[in-house]
Amino acid sequence: MRPLRLAVMLEQALEVGGGFQQPLNDVLWLRDWATKSGNEVVVYSPYPQTQRILKEFGIEARLLKFSVLDHAFLFLKYCGPFDLVQIGLKLKSPFERALVRDGIDVVHFTSTSKRHLLLYQLPFVITIFDGCHRDAPEFPEVRTFGEFERREILFGLGSKKAVLVVVNAPELVEDLSRRYAVERSRMVQIPFSPSIYVASSADDSKASDEAVLGKYRLERDYLFYPAQFWLHKNHVTLLAALARLRDQGRIERLVLCGSDRGERDKIEASIADYGLADQVSILGFVESSELGALYRGAAALVMPSYFGPTNLPPLEAWAVGTPVIYPQAFKTQAGDAAILFDYDDPASLADAILNLRTEGTRERLREAGEQRLQQLARETELGRDEFAAQMARLKHRLALIPR
After folding, report:
1. What total of structural domains would you count in the chain?
2. What pTM does this model have?
3. Rounded to 5 degrees, what are φ and ψ at 131?
4. Dist CA 24 CA 19 (whole Å)
């Protein structure tokens, strides 16, 4: 039987943060899977920068951008009746024609991509990170200007049409089954893994860590929150907690990093309103290679995000021994490896930060974080084994279909 030729789409830009780092982990694992199973992986990205990054890992990715016709196909697909025209004329988008020319059998989207709407012939695997447009529709980034409706189309049609749906948490299996009637047998759960850059930074010297901290003029023992500047990231609750602690005589320093998604000005205005300019440092987007040092320099990761049920930063913090302060809503991911708080209550977060400073707490959290990471690694291995088994079954079935 000939090898299965799997197209792996790495569509998120580096600036997206975890939305880039987790698919990068997937690409590296899929490369190893292909070698062991006798199959083939071809990696595609619309970004030359991603090509350069993958080349550092020995992967030659192909550049595949959206054409004007692809955008036209997408627009008509969203409109609905175009399906009848496409079926009648057997039209294929330029995107799909390029994949067919490359001999691709299956397309694996490592994120919830709109490009699955362009596929007429090729079967696909889709990855769904969350269902936050349903969990928290009050946030404009998942509601306004048709964003909610767009996501409903992508999630609903994508999860039902995909030959396999990859999720990172059991809650998503439940949500997709309930919301979109997706068969559980077509879902495989693979938890997040720490970024390869952070996980491999354990070998960095103390001097290299100090160089990173010196670059940003940081002293150790700050609170750290790496997140893009979106409203749902909930920076303001964290600032309110710091102001509350200051009023109680407790000064905590905070370091923020991440790309601006349109809300940084509001965060800076809130910092000024709370009088926290001397306590908060905003680094902007930082290099992936610097994240390990920034985590290690922190007293704790503090992540008040409203979106879950899983996030990448807690795993990265656990990977380098940094304690985690995390929302109670995401306890399933954290287990007992984090101090939990109510993300709608600055007082609850302030209490969690005070708890961090009690004797023995940080040591306990480091040990619990290491154990939690080991448990998730075992679950990831089981999920990847299931993925491999699903691909073996799909390979057999596709061999029965004339090319």
Report:
1. 2
2. 0.91
3. -125, 45
4. 9
What's the DSSP call for residue 80? S
- pLDDT value of residue 123: 96
* 187 and 264 share one domain: no
Please, where are the H alpha helices in 80-143?
A: 82-89, 94-101, 132-135
The domain that holds 43 is classified in CATH as 3.40.50.2000
pLDDT at 85: 61
* HEC-encoded secondary structure of 191-209: CCCCCHHHHHHHHCCHHHH
Half-sphere exposure of residue 42: CA atoms within 13 angstroms, side-chain side: 18
Q: How far apart are CA 89 and CA 113, in angstroms?
A: 25
Model confidence pLDDT, tens digit, residues 242-268: 999 999 999 999 999 999 988 999 999
**Which residues span the domain enclosing 159?**
5-194+377-398
Q: From residue 346, how far is each of 126, 211, 245 by CA, in Å?
A: 37, 34, 10
Question: Is the per-residue pLDDT at 149 higher than 80?
Answer: yes
C-alpha neighbours within 13 Å on the C-beta side of residue 384: 21
Question: Is the same domain home to 214 and 172?
Answer: no
Q: Which residues, 6 or more positions from 307, have their beta carbon under 8 angstroms from its beta carbon? A: 130, 132, 135, 136, 232, 233
Q: What confidence score (pLDDT) does residue 89 get?
A: 59
Residue % of the chain over a pLDDT of 90: 79
Query: How many other C-beta atoms are found inside a 10 Å radius of the C-beta of residue 229?
Result: 21
403 domain residue, yes or no = no
